[in-house]
Amino acid sequence: MNIVLLGAPGSGKGTQAARISEIYGIPHISTGDIFTENIKNQTSVGMLAKSYIDKGQLVPDEVTVRIVEERLSREDCAKGYLLDGFPRTIPQAEALDKVASIDAAVNLDIPLEKLMRRLTGRRGCPKCGGNFHIDFIGDVTGCPKCGEKLVTRADDNEETVSSRLKAYTEQTTPLIGYYESQGKLRTVQADGAIEDVLRSVLEVLKAL
Ligand code: AMP
Predict the structure, then answer these.
(1) What is Dmax (Cα atoms) for the chain?
(2) Of the four, 10, 11, 158, 186, which is 20 to 30 A from 117 by CA?
(3) Mutate to test the pocket of ligand 1, among 36, 48, 88 (most ligand atoms within 8 A of CB)
């Protein structure tokens, strides 16, 4: 099964994608994670991507499409995959349609006004990989699981989040109509507990 997970930044795509890929045994391909890895390794793609990511802008389509095409050509994608954060523009979706057959685009729907708080309150642990939110753990500095100092993603500050939400509204929301017209759109209400949203997504996937 080849699945696209759509949704605004902060809608919970990464969390849901990790769970779904585990349940279905298919790779979770996140363009955001690929860029983060490239930035860490200081590759040329990473350096270029960083200049856009830091401003809350989308990385150019040519670069993004190239890394996804390369990733999808690997053997582990033969039995299916879950795309998280790609496509984010109509040209990306069109490029994807040329190399892949997508079964469904699951849209995690959440009121936009909830997203600023969701994003600026995120904290991650660099040691154990745990992800938390200050609404649940309070404004603590140490990881609740392992005690390591928690970090905030560089692009989760208010100014950059505003740009990311603008990019989402202008460049990514047209994908909802794109997949709807192909009969592939499935919408799930994502403004709930992680387990409830996961249950809804799994129901949608089972019905395909
Ligand atoms: P994410 O972790 O999915 O929120 O992605 C972090 C940042 O990476 C985004 O704000 C974009 O700057 C960039 N990015 C991720 N995926 C894409 C994409 N499909 N197209 C363009 N830029 C992307």
Answers:
(1) 48
(2) 186
(3) 88
